[in-house]
């Protein structure tokens, strides 16, 4: 919860990551199979976010500011946009208590109900 609620994003890290992403974009542009899948997805999913490449538009990568990134995290990385899932011998009530302890009122498990799997779903 701490990394989402209190992200430490500084200008230097944003610039470093921008360079990494731009280099990855150049490398992918030289890989015919990647380019083919990008075009396939662009056509198959026209008008939806799935039409975009996983790295996003180059213009956005080049111009994104730290404040914009922090605002995106603050807006979108909050309950009810987060799913906290557990598998195995987890006590649901204990998981809810831990989520409340670390997330407070923004707990993604606020009002949750245990939904055990029936293992019959395909």
Quick rundown:
The protein has helices spanning 2-5, 11-29, 32-44, 58-63, 66-76, 92-103. It is mainly α. The radius of gyration is 19 Å and the shape is extended.
Coarse morphology? extended
Task: State the end-to-end distance.
Answer: 32 Å
- Rg from alpha-carbon coordinates: 19 Å
Note the main sheet.
none
Structural class, from helix and strand content? mainly alpha
Give the SSE order as H and E letters: HHHHHH
Low-confidence stretches: none
Query: What's the mean pLDDT score?
Result: 85
Strand percentage lies at: under 5%
The share of residues in helices is 40-55%
Total strand segments:
0
Number of helices: 6
Structure characteristics:
mainly alpha; 122 residues; 6 helices; 0% strand
Architecture overview:
With 122 residues, the protein is an all-alpha fold. The model has no long low-confidence stretch (mean pLDDT 85). It is extended and about 50 Å long. The protein is built from 6 helices and no strands. Helix content is 53%, strand content 0%.
Structural topology:
Blueprint: H1 2-5, H2 11-29, H3 32-44, H4 58-63, H5 66-76, H6 92-103
């Amino acid at each position: 919860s701490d990394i989402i609620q209190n992200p430490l994003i500084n200008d230097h890290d944003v610039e470093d990551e921008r360079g990494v992403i731009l280099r990855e974009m150049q490398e992918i542009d030289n890989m015919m199979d990647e380019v083919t899948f990008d075009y396939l997805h662009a056509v198959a999913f026209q008008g939806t976010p799935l039409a975009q490449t996983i790295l996003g538009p180059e213009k956005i990568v080049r111009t994104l500011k730290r404040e914009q990134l922090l605002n995106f995290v603050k807006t979108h990385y909050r309950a009810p946009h987060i799913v906290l899932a557990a598998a195995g011998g987890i006590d649901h009530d204990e998981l809810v208590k831990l989520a409340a302890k670390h997330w407070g009122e923004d707990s993604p498990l606020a009002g949750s109900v245990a939904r055990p799997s029936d293992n019959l779903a395909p």
